[in-house]
Each structure stands twice: as C-alpha cells, then as structure tokens.
Design a protein that fits this description.
With about 55 residues, the protein is mostly helical. The chain has two helices and no strands.
C-alpha cells in the first residue's frame, strides 16, 4: 500500500512530478517527489519528516 500524505502535500508532489515529466526539471522521479514534499512541509501540509541521511 502506498504511503498517504495530506491533500495539500499530494498537490505539491503532483505539481513537481508534472514538471519532471514535461520540463525535465529533475534527474529522477524520486527527486521530484522529495522536492514536492519539502515544499509541502514548508507550507505546513501534513507530510512525514524527511529521512535522516547517514
């Protein structure tokens, strides 16, 4: 089952994926999702905390 985010966070991710698909803004799909979630967090949308890097 896919991870669920708040509707506002989903909107941001969809926007970034659209840009990735049509404008080639990111190198990978994962980058587009990460940027969308990051923007959603800054706006206060319901999104999980970022993964800790090692």
């Amino acid at each position: 089952m896919a991870r669920k985010y708040g509707p506002k966070a989903q909107e941001e991710v969809e926007k970034e994926l659209h840009e990735h698909k049509h404008k080639g803004k990111f190198q990978s799909r994962e980058q587009a999702i990460a940027v969308g979630l990051s923007k959603a967090r800054k706006k206060g949308a319901k999104a999980p905390p970022p993964k800790k890097s090692s």
